[in-house]
From TrEMBL:
One Pfam family it belongs to: HEM4
Name by which UniProt lists this protein: Uroporphyrinogen-III synthase
E.C. number(s) listed in UniProt: 4.2.1.75
SUPFAM superfamilies named in the record: HemD-like
Species this protein is from: Microbulbifer taiwanensis
Length: 263
C-alpha cells in the first residue's frame, strides 16, 4: 500500500549540495521536509593523492573502461577530465553504479555502457560485473572513479579476471561537524527518514547515539539498496526498507510503500 505524503514529515540526510532535487520532489508530493546532512564530500586538493589524480587524468586516453561509483565521482571526475581533455578521448567505455550515477554520466556527455539510451533500473556492483564487456578484460586498463576507501568488490573481481585496475580517488567522505548537535536540537519526530548510502547510515547511527535521539530507531528508514537496508536493520532500525535504487523516483516509491505499511 502506498500513501500520500501530504502532512508527512520526512527527515533527509543527503549532503547539502545533493539534497535539493530530493527535497523538491518530496515537497511537491506534499511532505514537510527537514534536512540534516549526515555526509560531507571533501574534494582531494593536496598531497600525493592530488598528484595521483593528475597522472591518471593525463593518461585517461589509455583507459579501456572507466567506472564511476557515485554522482560525486561523476561530478568531480568530469571536472578534472574537462580541464585536461576538452574533447573526451574515444577509447574508454563508461560505466555507472546506480541509475542516478548513470544519469549524471549522460548529462556530462558520456554514453553509459550496458545502459542503452537510459540507465538500467538497477545497476549495483554485482550487476555491473555481470556485463558482457567486463568479462574478458585480461591486460585491459580499468580506472574506477570513487572516494577514498569503500568497497573493493569491483576492483578485486576485475583484477582476478586479469585487468590492470587503478582507483582514481577524488574525494573524502566525512561526518559534518555540527551534525550531532543539529540532531540533538531536532525536536520533531519524523514519519520517515531517508538515507542514500551506507556511510550516511553509519554517520546517522553515530549521531543518534551521541545526541541521545534513540527514539529515531523506531522510525521507518528508507535505504537505496537491500545491502544498506540489511545494514540498517543490524544497527537497530527494525523498520528499514530498500528502494530499487538510489534514484529519486525509486526512493519516493519506497518511501510511500514504507509509510503505507505503518499507517
Amino acid at each position: 500500500m502506498r500513501v500520500e505524503l501530504r502532512g508527512k514529515r520526512i527527515l533527509i540526510t543527503r549532503p547539502a549540495h545533493q539534497s535539493r532535487g530530493w527535497c523538491d520532489l518530496l515537497c511537491a508530493a506534499g511532505a514537510e521536509v527537514d534536512s540534516i546532512p549526515m555526509l560531507a564530500i571533501e574534494p582531494i586538493d593536496s598531497g600525493p593523492q592530488l598528484q595521483a589524480i593528475k597522472r591518471q587524468i593525463l593518461d585517461f586516453d589509455q583507459t579501456d573502461h572507466a567506472i564511476f561509483v557515485s554522482q560525486n565521482a561523476v561530478r568531480l571526475g568530469f571536472d578534472w577530465l574537462e580541464d585536461f581533455w576538452p574533447q573526451l578521448p574515444l577509447g574508454p567505455r563508461y560505466y555507472a553504479i546506480g541509475a542516478a550515477t548513470a544519469l549524471a554520466l549522460q548529462k556530462r556527455g558520456a554514453a553509459c555502457a550496458g545502459g542503452g539510451d537510459g540507465a538500467p533500473d538497477t545497476m549495483d556492483s554485482e550487476a555491473l560485473l555481470a556485463l558482457p564487456t567486463l568479462q574478458n578484460v585480461a591486460d585491459q586498463r580499468i580506472l574506477i572513479f570513487r572516494g577514498s576507501g569503500g568497497r573493493t568488490l569491483i576492483g578485486d573481481t576485475l583484477r582476478a579476471r586479469g585487468a590492470r585496475v587503478e582507483y582514481c580517488e577524488l574525494y573524502r567522505r566525512a561526518l559534518p561537524a555540527h551534525a550531532a548537535g543539529r540532531l540533538a536540537q531536532y525536536a520533531a519526530r519524523p514519519d520517515a527518514i531517508s538515507v542514500h548510502s551506507g556511510e550516511t547510515l553509519d554517520n546517522l547511527v553515530q549521531c543518534i547515539h551521541r545526541s541521545g535521539r534513540v527514539a529515531l530507531f523506531e522510525v521507518p528508514l528508507v535505504c537505496p539498496s537491500q545491502r544498506v537496508a540489511a545494514q540498517a536493520r543490524s544497527l537497530g532500525f527494525d523498520l528499514a526498507s530498500a528502494a530499487r535504487n538510489a534514484g529519486d523516483a525509486a526512493m519516493l516509491e519506497a518511501l510511500q510503500a514504507a509509510l503505507g505499511r505503518v499507517d
